[in-house]
Amino acid sequence: MILGGILLWGFLLWLLLRSVFAWLSGWPILARHYAAPSPLPPWDWRGQTVKVGRVRYRRCMRIAARADGLYLAEAGLLRHPPLRVPWAALSHPTPCTVYGRQYVRLTVGSPPIGTIEFAAALYPSLATKIPSADTPAPR
User: Fold this and answer.
1) CA end-to-end span of the chain
2) Do the domain assignments include residue 74?
3) Is residue 135, in this structure, part of any structural domain at all?
4) Is residue 117 in some structural domain?
5) Could you tell me the CATH number of the domain that includes residue 81?
6) Of 8, 63, 75, 81, which residue is most buried, by most CB within 10 angstroms?
7) Which domain holds residue 106?
8) Is 107 part of any domain?
9) pLDDT per position in the chain (139 positions), as tens?
10) What residues does 108 pair with on adjacent strands?
11) CA angle in degrees (0–180, nearest 5) for 116-66-98
């Protein structure tokens, strides 16, 4: 009986934290504007660390770069809806550091509705698709 109550409260706390993290990341707003269609494409990179808004999704993101946009999906149960952000909606690539690692920050939308940061090592594979004349190289 007590174990069941502890498990229930633990699960409810986990759901509450997921909701808070979703709100902090801005994922629901991004999903409203850039929901990915089904079926999702094959993934180019799995287990990537990506920062969306103020939340870092550590080693749980799948990324695909296709002609129609950048696809992002969280792996695991009870995940956020997948995103497909058109290349035209990504701008202002800026080198940054996240916990001592080199990342590239992209602004999403015009006017901006969010940011996505990913490892600088992925940037060369994506840079040619981002329609920005002032695309910087990672530091």
Assistant:
1) 56
2) yes
3) no
4) yes
5) 2.30.29
6) 63
7) 2-127
8) yes
9) 788 888 999 999 988 888 888 888 999 999 999 999 989 999 999 999 999 999 999 999 999 999 999 999 998 776 889 999 999 999 999 999 988 999 999 999 999 999 999 999 999 988 888 876 355 555 5
10) 90, 114
11) 20
